Each structure stands twice: as structure tokens, then as C-alpha cells.
Amino acid sequence: MTSPADLYATHRELLERAVAAAAARDYWSAFPESPSKSVYGEDAAPAGERAFAALLGKPFPIEVPGASGTVSTEHSPYGIELAVSYPKADPLALVAAARAAISGWRAVGPEGRAGIATEILKRINARIFEMAHAVQHTSGQAFVMAFQAGGAHAQDRALEAIAYALAATTRMPAQASWSKPQRGGDPLSMTKTGTVVGRGVALVIGCTTFPTWNSYPGLFASLVTGNPVIVKPHPGAVLPLAITVQICREVLAEAGLNPDVVTLAAEQPGDGIAATIATHPDVRIVDFTGSSEFGDWLEANARQAVVYTEKAGLNTVVLDSTDDYKGLLRNLAFSLSLYSGQMCTTPQNLLIPRDGITTEDGARTPEQFGADLSAALGKLLGDPKRAAGTLGAIVNDGVLARLTEAAGAPGVVHGSEAVADEQFPGATIRTPVVVRLDSADDKTYTREWFGPVSFLITTDSTEHSLRIFTETVRAHGALTALVHSTSPAVLDAAREAALDAGVHLSENLTGGVFVNQTAAFSDLHGTGANPAATASLTDDYFVAGRFFTLQSRHHV
Amino acid sequence: MTSPADLYATHRELLERAVAAAAARDYWSAFPESPSKSVYGEDAAPAGERAFAALLGKPFPIEVPGASGTVSTEHSPYGIELAVSYPKADPLALVAAARAAISGWRAVGPEGRAGIATEILKRINARIFEMAHAVQHTSGQAFVMAFQAGGAHAQDRALEAIAYALAATTRMPAQASWSKPQRGGDPLSMTKTGTVVGRGVALVIGCTTFPTWNSYPGLFASLVTGNPVIVKPHPGAVLPLAITVQICREVLAEAGLNPDVVTLAAEQPGDGIAATIATHPDVRIVDFTGSSEFGDWLEANARQAVVYTEKAGLNTVVLDSTDDYKGLLRNLAFSLSLYSGQMCTTPQNLLIPRDGITTEDGARTPEQFGADLSAALGKLLGDPKRAAGTLGAIVNDGVLARLTEAAGAPGVVHGSEAVADEQFPGATIRTPVVVRLDSADDKTYTREWFGPVSFLITTDSTEHSLRIFTETVRAHGALTALVHSTSPAVLDAAREAALDAGVHLSENLTGGVFVNQTAAFSDLHGTGANPAATASLTDDYFVAGRFFTLQSRHHV
């Protein structure tokens, strides 16, 4: 048996480095994003592939308290048969099991919990190739992206959450001495003890597109702050979280703790167990990524809990001027194409003044810009093999339906085409569609078209673009924003507009950084200041609501 | 004009000391609690009294945007005529004025805002005698207590909130460099800027009993995190907050800022402007101290805001054993008597096993304990002058009605008596009532009897007492709990029970520290973990929800 304290000692140096990196917000990463042999070893790739293949067509080996029967709900966007089955959860049994685990988990203390969490993460990283296949065949991300976003980057985000939770729960001393001078007498002296107490049972509700990346911050933040966690994957992407929960329970049991500190809640689509668990009186924390509809429902109905949601939004690009037009086009084309725009961070609304933008090669009208962007997309996605590696596969019929609807609209400047995949002939792969609109077409562009659909919207001026940007994002939310301008005055105005809108801003991205990507330990993801998300991944606010510090005091 | 940066420079050392004290949680105080001449100077007391007298019978000199007409709503519990009138607020005009102040206040930045807030606090401290009279004649606190709790301690709590808000808003660097190595190329390098953005317009709703102490943490936390604040005093205790807002506006204007960053919302009782303002879409933060009824209403209805409430509770004492019986009685009698039990921290439910408690003088049955406690109250309050100094005055008819109801119940072990005051013959002063109940009388003791009413409740055993303690506090809340025991096993069980109940615990208080008092920078007040309060005063959670950090990034 390895105690939580032993695990903390083992991982202490890494945790201290992570806490320091989160504070400095410079570049740092704990988990290598390259799937190369030189990093992960000669055998890692084939072993991971074998491990993934061995899971297919079988019941997934995991214990779930109170489960009865099984469910098998996943379909690979790459067309292979998965047929993994999971124990079908009984929501009340899961809540009862989690509640029974509370006091033991509380007694472990912040450092021990951080030790356990980091050990879990190390073992997840050791299975990164297996995990990448699991993410690829549920989300539709291309393999390398699944390895990075679903593997290394998700693990970095998890470690970041552990670091914030550990720092927040140890910032107040566990023991303090208090001595108040008294006139003409001995001082009043007391010893004061602070104990971190979790808020209660936590629920994490996963999504199909980023089953690990979007679930890990809430999962690990809740764990380290002292809360047992029920993990409810999307029925379309169970495997990556089932592997995660399996590892959690393994580490907990080896440390002599109740494994029900983390449980898996798999369901048949339509069972609605997320709503049942989220509104249970003992459930006090809910983390959710997904549709605005269910996110808003959770915020309105899970009143006994703190609710962290990440929902839909209108990611916006304000186009004013550039001195690197080719770089702009290349960068933007890649942002629209990466994982077929199925990122919560993909730009949807591209705002361009009627008179066009200025570039180092002269002015470009909206019409010319549309043609140039279309050409850049064509160039990026011209080779089918490279295109498939960038686009990944379409995750579900909902995305496909929106793509079809948009592609049939007037004003298409870049049409969507099917792309064939050599390795997976059954894969559903499409290039993105871009449609020209006018600023008056707000009925169309003020709803989110999640997937490879973007709008090039003509406005009266950059000032008008900034006003639309602020108003639409304040009202409907956004996770990202990008401005292209060579004018310091416009950049200042864009920064002010982004502060008013409550969204993070990227400026003049023309190289290897893309607006849809954020780096753990440096970039915040989401703000809380607009309707797209209630908090950032990860800052103090994201962890502070998950625990309380309770004091006891007595005279020395 | 003194700029916010100048004010930050002026107060920087004090702020750094406060941040360090809040982190260490040892004894520290910035504002002396003694009203002696040696501390505040020869003339401070008479000058303060003159300043207070000069306010009476007149319109209070303060500008309120959009106000029309005046209100005059206060009555001194000491029977003197106040007749101060205030501009009657128009809630929509106040919200509009606050909203107009947002971007200017945001631009000041965390350090500048902390500088402004500390300057405000220094000027409040310079008027501490005037403030003490204002608190005395609205809350009914005796003068020395009004000077301490309404003056120095409230100012310490305010500085603590400023320190937490400053630390939280500067923990993430305002500027960071990020440089990610690239295989076979130059690193990707970016500059990242973090800007603190307040959540929106803040509302602070004050109470009659602690108009400053309970309002200052929310007021100063919201200010320093970048939010304009509307201060809505209880109609019975306007003056202390009117003075506070007057000083806020004076400092803001002198610094060249919009004084509407802080405004006063005075109303006629029954106008209900707190509800109107709290549910306005632009109001994003609400701080409230008062009844559970309105607190619960705010939590349910001010859905667009984060709501911090401090409401009613069942403060509990678990009596098991002691080796200082006289000290226990003296300490408890004082806790029940101080400010006539009109503190949210005064013990109400005293749980004693049927077989009695063991003391250094042998066992004491519940009956004997009741008699001994009554005698201790008699001794403490025997001298009318000293009694008046401890008891203060009864704040309103509601408290008086509860006192009369309790005093008419069977099982009274200490009856309430009127006490005459030399200086203020019109003062309403009463000694506390203690009533014996059985553990089965939970209909009576599970509601809060705010005021000088306590119950000595017979239980089957200490274990039973701890069970009642946990169950009643989990269900109905509490701000304080106290255990008396010489048994390490019982103390351990009491600590575990307090963690389960979600309440801070004091142990074996027999000297000069009382369960109803908490010290800024060391003791937390409220936990968030039981229904009596949604957060502690003051920790990171109390400030973290008041702001967001928004990033912008660009290549170097």
C-alpha cells in the first residue's frame, strides 16, 4: 500500500513546479505533446494500439456501485465498430456511494489528495496512446490531435487544476498561533486549526468532442478540494472517461481508500441521469460542458449546487488591417479547419468592413477577402491525406445537418466537400463552409453553428464591427476573439471592446499560434464574464467554490 | 488632486502588512480598539461627540444621483431624537449611475483601487468617535462596543477584505512572457496581458445591529475588485453607512474619479428598493446581512448575481465537562449578555446531558447548571451601570416581543428584567432570559430567537448532544459553536461533528475570549458550509466571485 502522504512526497517536486508555473504563467508543460518514439519509447505506440484494440467488443472492466445491466452507446466517427459495454448506472446508488466516501476523503487532507490526483495523472499519461485511440474513435479528432488535446494537453490542464486546488487549499495555514496583548496582564493566546472541507458530492458531465480536456479540470479540482466525484460521460464518448475512472479507482484502492471517491455513470441516451444526479440534494458541485440549452437548465435547476458550465458562443474575428496578409489567411484557414470547427473555440463570425481591409498588398474588399480565404482553405486542404489529419471526422449527425443547411444558403464563398480517408474508409470527413452575410443578418449569425460553418459578415466600418462584437458576445457569449489590425488605436479599441464583452482577445495571429488553442499554465480558457462559460479554466475562482475552511480554536 | 497611484504608494506598507497578516492569521490589528485619549488624542472624543450632535435634526449632506425628496427613518434605542433626513433614492437612477462608473473604475486597476479604499478607511477611522455615536444610536450597542465593533473592528474587517481583494486580483501577473520551443525553429513567443474586470454593479444591504461591521467586507471587497457599489442601509441604521458613503465619495472625487462608484440608497420602510436593485439585470453582486426570509428570497430571485448572505442560525453550546466551572459560567454569562444577545454569534441552544456535567467541584445536574448560570448572570448584571454597558439597548420591538414570549414560557431559569440607564433615561434595556427545554422540544429550539433568549436543553448524553448539534446546524445553520469538555475523545468527536455541521468551533472558553467574537485577520466569520451564511468573512472565496481576469495576447 502506498499512502497518500507517500504519493505526495513522490510528486511534491512536480506539484511545486506546477504551482510556480501557474503563478508565473510563462510557458510550461509537464506532459510531452509529441507522440514520437524518442519521447514515449519504442514500444509505446504499438502497445497503446493493442491495449485499445483489446477493449473493443467487450464489457469494460470497471466496478460501479449499484449498477445493473450494461449499456453500449458509442459509434466511431471513423466508422470502425467499438461495441464496448459499460455497467448501467443507478444514479441514487452513485450518490449514496459518493456520500459514504466523503469523510474518509476529507481526512486525507489537501497534500494527500494532490498526491493521489497526481499519481492518477501519471498513470493516465502512461496510457496516452491507448487514450488517444479512445479519444479519436469517440470524438472524431484525428490521431495526433487526439494524442495532444485528448492526451498531453488534457493532462496539463488537469495538473493545472490540481496545482490551483492545492495552492488554494493550503494558502490558509492549517495551524496558527494567536496572541493578543492585554493591558496589565498576560496576552490572550489561542491555537487555531483550519480544516478544508469539500462542498459535497461533485458531478462532472462530459461532452463528445473533448471528453478528457473539458472534464479533467472539474474532476481534479473537485477531488483535490475534498469532494468525491461522479463522472457522467456523454453516451457518445464514454471510453476515455471510463479509462480515467478506472485509473482513479485503482490508485484510490492501492492507497487504502474507498474507490467510490470516483465513480462512472454510464447511461442509455435519453436516460437523463445527469439531470437526476445534478439536482440531488447531496450533489453540491456540477461541472458541465455542452449545449447552452442543458447548461442553462443546470444553472436554473441545480440550485443546491455551484454550477460551472461551458456552453455555446459566437467566437468572433474583427478584420481591420494587416501587414502579413498571407499569414493571416493561412492562420485563419487552419483555425476554421482544425477538427472541422468542432471546437468551442473555433471562430464563427468574421467581421469585415464594407470598404474592405488594408494589407501590405493593398486593400481587399469583402468579396476579395472571401475568395482569398477560400483559396487558403483550398491550399490547406488540397491534399486528402493532410486534409484528413487536420479536419478529423464529423462527430455526429447534428454537425452534419448544420453543415448541409449552411452549404445550401446563398452567399457561399467556400463550399464543403467530402474527403476520403485511406486508413478508415468509413470516416465522415468534410471541408468547412464559409458563407457571406450582411450585418443585418443577425438572426443567422447570432446563433451558434457548432461545426465547420463560418460567416464572413460585412459591416459599415471597423467601429461598427467592434460594436457588433461587443453586443453579440455580451448577449450570446464567446470563448475566443481575434482582431487583426496594424492600427494602435484600433487595437486599443478592440481591447476595450473585449473587456466590455468579457472575452479573451488574441491579436494579429499570423504564425503558429491559433485562436482556438490555449496553453495550460498560461492561457485562461473561458472567462465567466460572458454567457459562454461561468468560469475560467483554471483560476482561483474555478477552485474556490469547491471547499470551505472550518476553524477550531482553543486556548494554549 | 491625489491620484489612485499616489494613494496606493501612501498606503502600500499598510496593505502589505495586512496581506501578510491575513496569510499568517496570527494576531494583528490596524485600528486601535481603545477609545482612550492616549491612543486617539485629547480632543478626539469631544470632537466626535460634537460632530455627531451637529448631524441631528438636519438633512444629511450627501449627493445621491436621481434622488427626490427625503426620508427620515431612524429611532435611537437610547430614546434620544435623531431626525436626520437623507435623499430618497430612485433605484433605477442609482443602477444607471453605477453602471456609468464601471469603465472608469476598471481602468484604475487593483493597486489604485486598494489605495482609494485604504484612504477611505483611514478617514473613517479619523471619524471613529462620531461613528461610534452613530452606531450606538441606531443599533443600540453600548458606546464602547459601538466604538469597537462598529468602529475599530469593522475597520479591521474592511482592511482584511481589501487585503484579500488586492492579493486575489494581483496574484495573476498583469503581464507575462510565453515562449514555446519549436522543433527546428525559433520559439513561438507571445506577450500576455491580464486585466481584472469587475463582475458588474454591486449592492450591499446593511442590517440594524451591525451596520458597519457586517457591510464593510462586501463593500470593500467589491470596490477593490473593480465594482461600483450601491449601499442600501437598513432604514433603522442609515447614519453609520451614510457617513461611510460620504467619505467614499469625497475620496473618489478628490482623486478625480466619478463619485458614483459608491452611492447611498435610503428608503422609507416598505419601499422594498433592496429587492428592486438586487434583481436588476445590471446588478451582478449582492451582499446581504439579515433575516433568513429575505436572504433566502435574494438567493432564489437575484439569479443574475452572485449573492453573499449572512442569515439566522442556531448557535450551539455542547456542555460535557470542565475543569474551570466558574470560568465557564462567567464566560457564558457574558456571551449571553453582550449587546443583549443581538449578535448573529450569540449562543442560543445550550445542550446538557440529563445526568449533568462533571466539573472540578463535582457533577452538576441540568437543574443545578441552570441555577448556577442564572446566578452568574445575576452577578454580571447586578450593578445597573455595568449592566447597561454590557447589555446595550434593545434594537427594536421584534426583539422585545420575542423576549416577552420567551419570558412567559414555563421553565424559565433566568427571567428578564428592565435596567435603568443614568445617561439615557429613555433607553430600552433588558437582561436576558434563559429557558429550560427538553431535547423533544425541537419545535421551539430549531427556530432562531434573535435577541437575549437562550435555551438550556436536556439531552440523553453528550453523544446525543453532538447528534442534535450536527443535525440542527446542518438543517438550520449556525455562525458559532462552543464545546466544553475535558475529554480528548469528546473534543475529537465535537471537532468531527463541527466539520459535519459545517461550523467553526470554539473549545473550552473560560477566559477573555468569547464565542460571539471573532478577530479579523485570524478568525473566519461564517463558513458557507451551513445555511447561516454563503461564505466566510473573509477568505479567497469571498472575493474570487467578484471579478474576472481577461487576457489579451499577441506575438512579441
TrEMBL record, chains A, B:
Key word Transcription regulation present: no
Q: Where is the Aldehyde dehydrogenase domain?
A: 91-496
Keyword Oxidoreductase in record: yes
Gene3D superfamilies to which the protein is assigned, alphabetical: Aldehyde Dehydrogenase, Chain A, domain 1, Aldehyde Dehydrogenase, Chain A, domain 2
User: What domain of life?
Assistant: Bacteria
Q: Which UniProt keywords apply?
A: NAD, Oxidoreductase
Q: Name one GO molecular function term.
A: L-glutamate gamma-semialdehyde dehydrogenase activity
> Which GO BP terms apply?
L-proline catabolic process to L-glutamate
What do the Gene Ontology cellular component annotations say? cytoplasmic side of plasma membrane
The record ties this protein, via NCBIfam families, to: PaaN_2 (TIGR02288)
Per its record, how is this protein called by name? Answer: Oxidoreductase
